[in-house]
Structures are given as structure tokens and as C-alpha cells.
Amino acid sequence: MKATSSRAGSFKQAVKVRDHQLTADEPTDLGGEDAGPSPEELLAASLASCTAITMEMYAQRKGWEIGDVEVECTYTPSERGRPTRFALTLRIPSGLPDEIVQRLQIIAAKCPVHRTLDGEVMFEERVERVSLAS
Question: Residue 39 pLDDT > 90, yes or no?
């Protein structure tokens, strides 16, 4: 995965993941062009999509027909002395039995992105000086 500036003086990034490409940018009120979601929005979208996929995979393994699910994720970025806060809303069809809904809620919190954000994170960073084509 990599992000590459699309042009000097712009926050817009071309993000490549495997054979997929998307754009990340900052909103106009933060000096961007709003050409794509911000990196923080992509993080929240990763949490929402991972949560939904985790519930659907679990239901599939159990042989449960759960219908369409939707996960909404909002977040409040961290500020000095306060952690980033994520709020997830799981929208599950109303006809599902309570025991399945409760199990899906437990499984939702076990998605890989949730576990990553909830656990200890370590970073390794290095700088490579290269000549980039303009």
C-alpha cells in the first residue's frame, strides 16, 4: 500500500492497494480540494466495513441467513488528553432472533480493524531519499 502526492502544493493523495486505486484528500476547510475522503474518514470506513464483513462471515459460517447489514461509524478525533472516539451503529434486520443479534454484536467487536485500534500499536518508520518523477 502506498500514497503518492498527486501534485506539489496539494494534499490530494493517490492511494494504491493491490490492484485498486482511490483518492484521499482533506476537506476544503482544511486546505484540501475534497477530492476524496480524509485519511481519518478512511480509517472510520475501514472500521465500519471490517465490522460488517466480520458479522457476515460469521453468519455465513453458522449457516444463518441474516439479510443485509449496515454499519455506520462516526468518530471524534483525538485532542490533547482525550482519545479518538469511534461510535458504531449496527443495523441488523428486525426479524432476527435476539440470540443471533447478541452473538453478532459480540463478533462485531472482534473484527481485525477493531482489534487493531483497541490494542497496542507500534510503528516503524524510515526515510528513503529518492528522485521522484514530476
Answer: yes
Beta bridge partners of 17: 20
- Cβ contacts of 47 within 8 Å, gap of 6 or more: 73, 86, 88, 111, 113, 114, 117
In the predicted model, is pLDDT for residue 134 greater than 70? no
Q: Which three cell numbers stand for residue 20?
A: 485498486
Tell me if 43 sits within 8 A of 49, measured CB to CB: no
Considering the segment(s) 38-120 as one domain, its CATH architecture is 2-Layer Sandwich (3.30)
Give the Å distances, CA to CA, from 32 to 11, 24, 48, 87, 124.
6, 10, 24, 26, 27
Domain-wise residue ranges, the chain: 1-36, 38-120
Instruction: Name every residue whose Cβ is closer than 8 Å to that of residue 21 and which is 6 or more positions away in sequence.
Output: 14, 15
Q: Which residues fall within 8 angstroms of residue 23, CB to CB, at 6 or more apart?
A: 6, 12, 13, 14, 15, 35, 36
